[in-house]
Amino acid sequence: MVTPRKNPQRPAIQRKSVLPLVGVIIAVLLCGGIGFAAAQGLLPDTQAARSSSANSSAAESSAAKESSDASSAEEAADKQQAQSEAQLDASQQSSPEATSLEQAPSEQTPSDEAASSTEGNTQPESTPASSELAWRDTDFAVDPARPAGSTSDNGRKVVYITIDDGPSARTPEVLDILDKYNAKATFFVVGADPSNYHYIKEAYDRGHTIGLHTMTHDYAAVYASTDAYYADLNQIGQVVKDQIGYVPCFIRFPGGSSNGVSADYCAGIMSELVNSVQAQGYQYYDWNVSTGDGAVHTAEELVGYVKESGLDTNIVMLCHDSETKQSTVEALPQIIEYYQGLGYSFEAIDRNTWVPHHGVAN
Question: What is the pTM of this model?
């Protein structure tokens, strides 16, 4: 019996050696193809690709860094600007001038303009006369169409201090005393000393009334004729107008309406003047109480004369203002205290004040 012949198996070593050979061939072919493709530019060079990738990553990193740097720079700039603005605000708060210089001009309201116009003004605040008493500028002005004065008292206990012959070097003392006692008065002024004219306005601004007395107080010149009298009156009227802006309607004749001295220069002149001045819009004021300071007396004597004069409801009291009237300045506080103790107030003459008229002697 013949035994079938089996196919001999390839030695394992041969199978193993073929496979590596095939792998080598395939690898050679692949490498050759790849090399050829690379040589022909069909495939990217591995190193180039890696370099490109690295460059791309570096560029992205650089861009990110630049973006980060730009963001940091912007934040730093914003921070610097905020600090600068804070410093500027602090500077403006501490220096109003800097604010006004850097801000654009804007329209001022009337109150702003008023505040601006008064800024830097070193003058003390104005007394009520310049605002609350401004009505006097028209009400007290001479006006032939408006009679002034009343023939009856007002029923109240009022003293009207009337001060002749100023202004003088004593006027500031008199004004201070009146202020101290909250008393108002009326100054019948003369034109004797131009260096004191400014006290006319000061008295007016403190709330007192200004009246006309005489320019020269020279009886011979003033009462030479009616024309001479009005020439003198017009001169002192202009002096007062220069100070307070108008000619007041209140006047006092030199020596009063009852003076007898005028007869030495022009007979009957006072009888004519008492009527003509009122026709022209003036009102003349005499007095019903005198301090007696037209002559030389002590302060105690002046106070005594006042106390002996009686107590009418309305008192128009005569006193004088000149450099020689020291006793009047000393007596004035005592006189004011005396009447205030009796319930009197002290007011300035106005258009409605009772008018005392003396009997005319010429």
Answer: 0.66
